Fold:
Amino acid sequence: MNNIDMNDNNDRILNSNDFEESQFVKIESLIKEEKNEKIAELLLKGRDRDNDIQKKDYLDRFLDFVIFKLKTGNFHDINHAYPTKRIADNELEGKLIQLINYHLYPDIVTKILKCFTKNVNNSDTNLYLANLIKSDGIIKEIYNTFQLFKKDIFETDRMKRSQNVKNIQQFDLEADVQFSSPLDAACRFKYILEFIALNQNVMHIYTLNDISLSKIGIQDRQSRR
Structure:
């Protein structure tokens, strides 16, 4: 098979609307067979190809695959308060860590933030993906987004209060605010940041005091005087 045929085949795999388990098997084969540089080139080539943020691009589909592999992986007991999983295939997990933190950075950051922010109903699974994040650059963006949501909690205009959350979720700004609460989003990101701090030294980025939400009630009462 020549390079053109191979590239066309890879495009079909990543562009398929039928993203069931059988499609994930094909993506896994692609990742295992190709070098990280080649995989990154392919994934980045297909980002936002339709200029429609409502449609999933190659990076979105890549993260769908990563999360699928994590959900079907093995529980990893770091701390009972922070349940997480690891991919059963150590070699595949290692490649995914390299891709996420180095080869696809910084392009993948917005996709990761969207994933964390949209995951409202099963936010514990955010820790599965967070367990693969090693890059200071990605961790800084998670922390900065937490601070943005924390600030938005005190916005008095109901629609403006949810605007930044909706932007990251890629929701319509006129959509219902039910799933776009900055307080809820800040709590989810706080949980992720606490978990990351268990795994690695992040003191040069943030401390546990920096991600505290315990003073919000006091600040809110003072801001309304």
Q: What stands out?
A: The longest helix spans residues 182-199.
